[in-house]
C-alpha cells in the first residue's frame, strides 16, 4: 500500500519525537524519580509541620486564635514554597532567578499595600502583646470606649457615648493606650476647697464617714482624707479611696454628691473661685 509522502513524513516525525522522549526519559530517569520522591516527602513533611504548628499555636494561651490561624497559614505556605523550589532544583532548574522574581513581586505588593500591611502588622502585635482585650474599656487618642472585636486590620470600639467606631489597628498601636479595665482595682480622688474659717477636722471626718458607709469602697488600702494645699481663698482638702474597677464611675458620682450634701448639712462652705481677670489686649 502506497502512503502519501506527507503521511510518511508525519509518521517519521512522530517516531523521532517518541525516540527523543525515550532518550530524555532514559537520561533523566534518576532525576525524575528523585524529584518525585522529594515532592512526596516534602508534601508529607509540609502537612505534618503545618499541622503541628497550628496545634501548638492554637493551644498557646498567649496567642489569640486569629493570630494563631494567621501564623499557621504563613508557615504552611512557606513550607509549600520550599518544597516547590526543592523539586525544581532537583530537575536542574536555576531557582535563583525565580527567587529574585518572587522577592521583587513581594516588594511591589508590599509597597502597594503599605497601609494595609501596617495595619496587619499592628493587629498581630496587638493580639500578641494584648494591651487590651475584648470587653475592656480603653482610651487611645480620640477613641474612648469598650472594645467589641479585634481583627487583623481593624478594632471595633463601642464608645461611651453610644457611637460605634472602627479604628485601623495602626492608629491604636502608635498611640499610648490607657486600659481602665485591666487592673482589678482603681483609686478615686476627690479634691475640693473649703473656707479658711471652717474646721478642717470636721470636714475630714465627714469625708471618711461617707467613705466608710459606702460598700463599694475597699477597706484595703484604707480611705485617706488630707489637706492638699492652701489656696488664696480656700483650703483644698482631698479624699482618696480604692474600689473595684467596675464601680469606679458610679462611686465617683455618688461620693461627690454625698460630700456636697454633707458639707451643706454641716455648714461647711465651698468657696466660689473667682475667674482670673482677662489680660488687656496688646495694642
- The chain-level mean pLDDT equals 79
What percent of residues are in strands?
15-25%
Tell me about the biggest sheet? 5 strands, antiparallel
How many E-type strands? Answer: 8
The H-and-E topology, N to C, reads as HHHHEEEEHEEHEEH
Rg on CA atoms, Å: 37 Å
Strand order of the largest sheet: 4-3-2-1-5
Measured as a percent range, the helix fraction is 40-55%
Question: What would the principal axes of the Cα set say about the shape?
Answer: rod-shaped
What's the helix count?
A: 7
Query: Low-confidence parts, pLDDT < 50 over ≥5 residues?
Result: 274-283
Distance between the termini: 121 Å
Structural class: alpha+beta
Structure description:
This protein is α+β, with helices and mostly antiparallel strands. 53% of the residues lie in helices and 18% in strands. The protein has helices spanning 5-59, 65-90, 96-112, 114-129, 169-173, 200-212, 248-266; strands at 137-140, 143-150, 154-159, 164-168, 178-179, 185-194, 224-230, 235-244. The strands form two sheets. A five-stranded antiparallel sheet has the order 4-3-2-1-5. Strands 6-8-7 form a three-stranded antiparallel sheet, with helices on one face. Helix 6 (200-212) crosses helix 7. The radius of gyration is 37 Å and the shape is rod-shaped.
Amino acid at each position: 500500500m502506497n502512503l502519501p509522502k506527507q503521511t510518511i513524513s508525519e509518521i517519521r516525525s512522530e517516531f523521532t519525537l517518541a525516540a527523543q522522549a525515550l532518550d530524555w526519559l532514559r537520561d533523566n530517569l534518576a532525576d525524575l524519580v528523585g524529584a518525585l520522591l522529594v515532592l512526596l516527602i516534602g508534601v508529607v513533611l509540609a502537612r505534618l509541620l503545618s499541622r503541628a504548628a497550628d496545634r501548638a499555636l492554637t493551644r498557646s494561651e498567649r496567642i489569640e486564635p486569629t493570630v494563631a490561624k494567621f501564623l499557621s497559614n504563613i508557615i504552611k505556605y512557606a513550607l509549600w514554597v520550599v518544597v516547590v523550589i526543592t523539586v525544581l532544583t532537583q530537575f536542574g532548574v536555576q531557582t535563583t532567578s525565580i527567587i529574585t522574581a518572587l522577592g521583587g513581586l513581594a516588594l511591589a505588593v508590599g509597597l502597594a499595600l503599605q497601609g494595609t500591611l501596617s495595619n496587619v502588622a499592628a493587629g498581630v502585635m496587638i493580639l500578641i502583646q494584648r494591651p487590651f482585650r475584648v470587653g475592656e474599656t480603653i482610651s487611645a487618642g480620640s477613641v474612648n470606649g469598650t472594645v467589641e472585636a479585634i481583627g487583623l486590620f481593624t478594632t471595633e470600639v463601642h464608645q461611651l457615648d453610644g457611637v460605634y467606631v472602627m479604628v485601623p489597628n495602626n492608629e491604636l498601636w502608635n498611640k499610648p493606650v490607657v486600659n481602665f479595665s485591666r487592673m482589678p482595682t482603681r483609686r478615686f480622688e476627690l479634691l475640693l476647697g473649703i473656707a479658711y474659717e471652717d474646721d478642717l477636722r470636721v470636714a475630714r471626718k465627714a469625708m471618711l464617714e461617707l467613705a466608710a458607709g459606702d460598700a463599694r469602697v475597699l477597706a484595703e488600702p484604707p480611705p485617706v482624707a488630707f489637706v492638699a494645699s492652701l489656696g488664696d481663698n480656700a483650703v483644698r482638702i482631698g479624699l482618696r479611696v480604692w474600689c473595684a474597677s467596675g464601680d469606679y464611675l458610679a462611686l465617683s458620682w455618688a461620693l461627690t454628691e454625698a460630700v456636697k450634701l454633707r458639707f451643706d448639712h454641716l455648714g461647711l462652705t465651698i468657696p466660689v473661685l473667682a475667674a482670673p481677670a482677662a489680660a488687656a489686649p496688646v495694642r
